[in-house]
Design goal:
119 residues, five-stranded mixed sheet, alpha/beta, 4 helices, Glutaredoxin
Length: 119
């Protein structure tokens, strides 16, 4: 299951940008953070794909969602200008951003290449 993040839960589970200037991922397994809005058509297309991936990679990849309307500070922190945008967070490496409603196959490739997780 995907998990909705507030600013507080983001600081606790992903990255505390108020304490650290350098990226320091707090997760125990790699994560994908989906920046979305309820009114966004492509976001609605992407949502069921991310739900499938959260089941497919259960215990290997955590999938979070951030509502850009409710969490404007988080969106600004990551320079989100278009949605959907996904932040791929590998362990011990810098995160990578991808924009747009990517097809499932492409997200799976990113999970393998960036997050270094095999299905």
């Amino acid at each position: 299951m995907t998990e909705l993040l507030s600013k507080d839960s983001f600081l606790e589970k992903v990255f505390n940008y108020e304490e650290n200037k350098e990226w320091e991922f707090k997760g125990e397994i790699p994560a994908i953070i989906d920046f979305y809005a309820d009114w966004c058509g492509p976001c609605k297309t992407l949502s069921p794909i991310l739900e499938q991936l959260s089941e497919q990679y259960e215990g290997k990849v955590k999938i979070y969602k951030v509502d850009t309307e409710a969490e404007k500070e988080l969106s600004a922190m990551f320079g989100i200008r278009s949605i959907p945008s996904m932040l791929f967070c590998p362990i011990n490496e810098d995160p990578q951003m991808a924009n747009g409603a990517l097809p499932k196959k492409q997200i799976e490739e990113i999970i393998g290449n960036v997050l270094k997780v095999k299905n």
